[in-house]
Every structure is written in structure tokens, then in C-alpha cells.
Design brief:
By secondary structure, this protein is an alpha/beta fold. It has eight helices and seven strands, in the order E-H-E-H-E-H-E-H-E-H-E-H-H-H-E. It has a single domain, classed as NAD(P)-binding Rossmann-like Domain (Rossmann fold, 3-Layer(aba) Sandwich). The protein has a seven-stranded parallel sheet with strand order 3-2-1-4-5-6-7, sandwiched between helices. Helix 3 packs parallel to helix 4.
């Protein structure tokens, strides 16, 4: 029980990697605040945790809205009395995110609002609570699109900037016993990936396969798509005392994609 007695807030926890992380944390003894804009999915994950014998609460939230992010953190502390771990997993992908000359300002703003401003808001409001509890961990979910060339400029920019922001957080709050690290998943079998592939043709998928971590066939060293649980295992490690001397680090979970 590596997280026994700790409280974790996980955004994007209604499905995919966020759900896997929330469940994994609960299995290891953490109380979990399940944060997502998807109420039915979030409530389902909350009930799944409770059925496991864990303690969980659902908070509906659009992470791109400052007031809702602040209220989600406040609701977590009000319900559990403390906060030790923040996981920023909520993120979006817009199929209109393409060649820069055709990329609309609306698409750019929306992608960065969720993928970058959301983690900024949650760090802004959650970290003081974590410091009050004596320290803890921030785990931000970026992407290999933040490490390598991508044909999705808004998505890639949001994920690359998230890495830089995480390192700044690690530098600023290390003295307060707050560690901040990044996970960069490659192609992971999630509902988001399914939606991406549904909106793309086979030719487009083949052309982008080496650059786009959402493509259906990527020449990985490990030749398969990853599972959400494999990301959750790394997120557990980074939140636990096993990673007590690790901060400002970037962990690709991509089957070797970022090394190609």
C-alpha cells in the first residue's frame, strides 16, 4: 500500500489513462478525488473505487475554467481534509489541428486552454495545499508529441510547454518537499485515441505514422499499442516514496517511439 493515508486529485479521471491512474492509486491505499467534465464516467470510476473498498469523490470540472479548477481543489480538501498528490491528465485533441497556415486561432486557444492552462490552474491551487501537508508529488501527463516533431502544432506546443512548466514547478517547490515529474505516453489504447483514429483516413494514418503518436501503426521497438495501466504504474511510482529523489524528470512510456 504505497499511497496509504494519502489523498490524490486526478483530472481526466473518467476514462483512459486518468481512470487507470485513479484506480491504481486507490488500490495502493490513496483516497482519490475523481475530476472530469464527464459526469457519468466520473461517477462510474468513483463507484468502482468504492467497490474496491476505497474512498473516492467525484467533482465535475472543466479544467480550462479557473473558477472550476479552484473549486475542485477546494472540494478535495473539504472532503478529505488534505491533499498530497496532483495528477494532471485531462487533455484534448482537435482534428482541426493541422498545417499552421490553416490552423484557426479558436482551435489553438481551445487546445492550449485544456492541455496547458488546465494544469497551470490545478498546480496554482493544489500546490499550496500539498505544501501545507508537508509535501507530495505532481505528476503531469504530457505526450511524445512534446518531445519529437509532430504534425499537430497546437497539441505539440501544449505538451512541450507542459514539460517546461513542470520543470519550473520542480525548481520552485523542491525546498517545500514537492516533487514534479512528467510522463510522456506514446500510442496508448484509450477512448481519446479511438476518436482520433475515427476522424482520420488510412492514407493520412500511414503518412503520419512516424511522427504522430496517435497513429494506428507506429514502428515501435515494442511493437504494440500501450495500455493505460502501464502509464498508471509509472504514475504510481512517481507519486510514491520509491521516487523520493526524482523530480523535474521526463518519463517516456512509448515503446521506444521517442528514440526513433
Amino acid at each position: 500500500m504505497r499511497l496509504e493515508g494519502r489523498v490524490a486529485l486526478v483530472t481526466g479521471a473518467a476514462s483512459g489513462m486518468g481512470r487507470a491512474i485513479a484506480l491504481r492509486y486507490a488500490e495502493e491505499g490513496a483516497s482519490v478525488c475523481v475530476v472530469d467534465i464527464d459526469r457519468p464516467g466520473g461517477e462510474l470510476v468513483t463507484h468502482m473505487i468504492r467497490d474496491l473498498g476505497g474512498d473516492a469523490e467525484f467533482v465535475q470540472c472543466d479544467v480550462s475554467i479557473r473558477e472550476q479548477a479552484s473549486q475542485a481543489v477546494a472540494a478535495t480538501v473539504r472532503r478529505f481534509g488534505m491533499l498530497h498528490v496532483l495528477v494532471n491528465d485531462a487533455g484534448i485533441y482537435d482534428p482541426a489541428d493541422g498545417p499552421i497556415e490553416y490552423l484557426s486561432e479558436q482551435t489553438w486557444d481551445r487546445v492550449l486552454a485544456v492541455n496547458l492552462k488546465g494544469p497551470f490552474y490545478f498546480c496554482k491551487y493544489a500546490i499550496p495545499e500539498i505544501v501545507t501537508c508537508g509535501g507530495g508529488a505532481v505528476v503531469n501527463i504530457s505526450s511524445t508529441a512534446g518531445l519529437t516533431a509532430s504534425d499537430r502544432p497546437a497539441y505539440g506546443a501544449s505538451k512541450g510547454a507542459l514539460i517546461a512548466m513542470t520543470r519550473a514547478v520542480a525548481r520552485q517547490y523542491g525546498a517545500d518537499n514537492v516533487r514534479a515529474n512528467v510522463i510522456c505516453p506514446g500510442p496508448i489504447d484509450t477512448p481519446l485515441r479511438d476518436r482520433i483514429l475515427e476522424g482520420r483516413g488510412e492514407q493520412d494514418s500511414e503518412q503520419d505514422s512516424e511522427q504522430d503518436p496517435a497513429a494506428p501503426s507506429v514502428p515501435l521497438m515494442i511493437k504494440r499499442v500501450g495500455r493505460p495501466e502501464e502509464v498508471a504504474d509509472v504514475a504510481l511510482f512517481l507519486a510514491s516514496d520509491d521516487a523520493s529523489y526524482i523530480t523535474a524528470a521526463v518519463y517516456p512510456v512509448d515503446g521506444g517511439l521517442s528514440a526513433l
